[in-house]
């Protein structure tokens, strides 16, 4: 990736985005050295215009930004860096420097849930219910999805809204586990639904 550092005093803007939620976290600036260090360490490093030096986000607070991927824009003079944040990004203690208005829709939580389940599958921590499902295999996970779907219908028919919400939550969780087991993303499901939508 050849970037255009020749303009703006050798700096290019870098938009930082949470890879799990798509929330925009902050905007910083990088010179070539900051960019190279970010690539090498897999942690976001900026050039601080006030301190006149490289500045690793989180070097004081410990709230580092672990890099997931880096993309340049069409002119190669701006970056989009998707990260896994370790704690709050903003110095005020909130997740995004753009405030509450930058929070994504609640539906993005499903992506976050899928990410957490993937981590459980990767790390296989002891005592985890999710891990016990993966160990039991796809047939067991599928049986739980069927069971929870039946519970949703039962709640909707006889037990009211509160129980229906609870059982639907259980169903979505088990569907998410099944999706991770067979490597399906919500993006895949949404794409399929959009194809079915009539103009």
What keywords describe this structure?
199 residues, alpha+beta, Ubiquitin-like (UB roll), Helix Hairpins, 2 domains, four-stranded mixed sheet, two-stranded antiparallel sheet, 6 helices, elongated
Structure characterization notes:
A hairpin with a 5-residue loop joins strand 1 (12-18) and strand 2 (24-30). This protein has helices at residues 32-41, 109-123, 129-136, 138-158, 160-181, 186-196; strands at residues 12-18, 24-30, 45-48, 53-56, 65-72, 79-85. The protein is of the alpha+beta class. The strands form two sheets. It has a four-stranded mixed β-sheet with strand order 2-1-6-5, with helices on one face. The mean pLDDT is 89. The protein has two domains: 8-98, Phosphoribosyl-AMP cyclohydrolase (Ubiquitin-like (UB roll), Roll); 106-196, MazG-like (Helix Hairpins). It has six helices and six strands, in the order E-E-H-E-E-E-E-H-H-H-H-H.
